[in-house]
Amino acid sequence: MKNKLQNLAIILLIVVAIIVVCLLGFVLPKSAEEAESQNPQTTIELVFPYQNSQWTSCIEDIITSFEAARPDIDIKYEILYEDTVYEDILSKKTARNELGDIVQLKEPYAWAETGLIAPLPFRFGESVDFVCSVDDEIYAVCALGSTTGIVYNKAIFDSLGLTPPSTYNEFLKICSVLRSKGITPLGVGGKDLWHLEYWLNHFLRADVLSAEPDFLALCSSGERDWSDPLICNMLRHMNELFALGYVDPQWANTTDSSLAYKMSEGEVAMVFSGPWLASSALALENSMDLGWFYVPNTDGNAIAGESLDVFWAVTAQCAQNSAKKEAAIAFLDHFYSEGAYENLCTEMGSFSTLRDPQRSATPDEGILAEVMEDNAKADIHISDYVGDENTPPGFEKKLLLLLYDMCTGKLSPEEAQDLACLYWDECRAREVAYEN
After folding, report:
1. pLDDT of res. 83
2. CATH for 42-145+309-360, options being 3.40.50.300, 2.60.40.10, 3.40.190.10, 3.40.1010.10
3. Whole-model pTM?
């Protein structure tokens, strides 16, 4: 009898143990699910191009600090790097429905008008000075303002008694002196097609827009065209730098990212780029003394190109998901937050686009201070460029390919101009047909 009772007790213990294990098997997963539902992690995708190493590094730093502040949000990002124009890449991603949640845009108006990006809270218009606004709705905010000009090696200039030019002929003379001394005057990253935009837009501004500020808009309306003598001057001046041997002979195989190395090694005396190039070169060789100047036009005016072509937008697809939209807006708030935004502007050598003047202080020394000073003293400030809202879709890439062929000697400036006229008309006709 005693043994039976003991056996029964053992059986009961086993049954209880089985029941407990079964209950734990059901209860624990349920508790984990409940915990996850209380603190769900939202994942959003950020899409932006490789512009330079500083831009990539700054964005990654902002993502890291944002995720630390908001552990409930995970930022996936894709850095798009190809030797073509960024708009081509975005077109492919749009066709595949892979535009992401937050996207960097160069010209956001067309994206807003076609419904591919969503309205943003009005507070961004109150804090950011440059926004894309359509029908009283804000669709994109300018990330930063930048400028392009010549970054030069002061040691090389000083050794030859050279100083920044006050006329375009003086600039050509500098190039001639450097070349005669066996020093490559100009570094160009032609392997990255988009790098040619720096020189293209300089000569567009210096030779065309300084004389006719509304030239691109007039071409868009059919009142002017690319057979204009102003365009002829632009192409001849750009071709001249290459034809006279003032550009690194290996420019067609040189990437934009390698120009900082060439400058740090003293392989080139000058590079037409932005202040961020100086930061890259100094990171490689901090003993360098670098300077800055704007290339004057033939009238002797210093032309300051002001670029406002880096915008953040939230995609329409993202806005359909309330959690993703909230996460995207939170990231944009963090991007412009105190400390994070100031660090970005310093690293990039860029201008703040915030309305608050207290957050737009000018540095006291270094090349960025020189950039700011020269920008303030420039004779003409121009922000229009090939690729803005007055440029028909597709024309920018075709023109850059033309310039590549011209600068490699495959086309004369006159042949390039004839083809530019043809391509503008073709691209504009397609744009009109699409609008209708």
Report:
1. 55
2. 3.40.190.10
3. 0.83
